Amino acid sequence: MTRFYVLLLLAFFACKIDVKKQIKPVDINAIPSQLTKIDSYHIDTKQSLIYWQGATLGKTHNGSIFFNKGFFGIQNDSVIFANLEIDMHSIQNFDVTDEEKNAELIAHLKSSDFFDVEKFPFGRLKVQSSNYQMDSTGNITRNVILELKGISQDQVISYKKASTDDAFRITMSALKINRQLWNIHSKFTHPVSFAKDLMIQDTIILHAKIMALKK
């Protein structure tokens, strides 16, 4: 009987040793990132727009462009990625009140001498990095990619974000872009077109208001 208990105890301790050997250390720091949920938000195109401003010699023009669609990935109330599609066909002008002249201006902006909307109907604004900086006033600065006429350029934007449980609003401060970086200019096939393009300032100023709803 004594021999039986001795063998039983040896078997018990042997099992304990085997269990301990099977235990693997857990990386506690890795747990939060694995468990944190990424929420999907879709842009509300009826409440979102881009406000643009451009200038020629002695004149300033302004108007709007609407978004076609878009989505955001939100984690811990921060944008970690986004892809917004800009509807270049929707471009409008506000300052030219004469209907005929307004139509002429819009036709020029849509033509191959400017945005070439027939060939490139959509632009894009993308966020591909979760990195950003926020100042004491809540102003956020981050890198984005702006695609126009099929050309992508890195840009830095600043904006403020206001959130509720199922929506958020972004108000983007002035973004100054150089149109030449996206080949937004006349084809220079004639001296007159070259002269007209020289009258157009290279800087285009963009503001944006974006409303996004939780999916």
- Could you say which structural class the secondary elements and strand pairing correspond to? alpha+beta
**Count of structural domains:** 1
Total count of strands = 10
Outline type: elongated
Low-confidence stretches: 4-35
Radius of gyration (Å) = 28 Å
User: Share of helix among residues?
Assistant: 10-25%
In the CATH hierarchy, what is the superfamily?
Answer: Lipid/polyisoprenoid-binding, YceI-like
Query: What is the CATH fold-level name?
Result: Lipocalin
As a percent range, the share of strand residues is over 45%
**Secondary structure tally, helices:** 4
First and last CA, distance: 70 Å
Summary of the model, kept short:
With 215 residues, the chain is α+β, with helices and mostly antiparallel strands.
Question: Can you offer a commentary on this structure?
Answer:
The protein is 21% helix and 47% strand. The chain has 215 residues and is α+β, with helices and mostly antiparallel strands. It has a single domain, classed as Lipocalin (Beta Barrel), CATH 2.40.128. The longest helix has 21 residues, at 2-22. Strands 1, 2, 3, 4, 5, 6, 7, 8, 9 and 10 form a ten-stranded antiparallel beta sheet that branches.
Indicate the topology.
Blueprint: H1 2-22, H2 31-35, E1 39-43, E2 49-56, E3 59-75, E4 78-93, H3 99-110, E5 122-127, E6 133-134, E7 140-148, E8 151-163, E9 167-178, H4 191-198, E10 203-214
Antiparallel strand pairs: 1-3, 1-10, 2-3, 2-10, 3-4, 4-5, 5-7, 6-7, 7-8, 8-9, 9-10
Descriptive labels:
Lipocalin, alpha+beta, 215 residues, 10-stranded antiparallel sheet, elongated
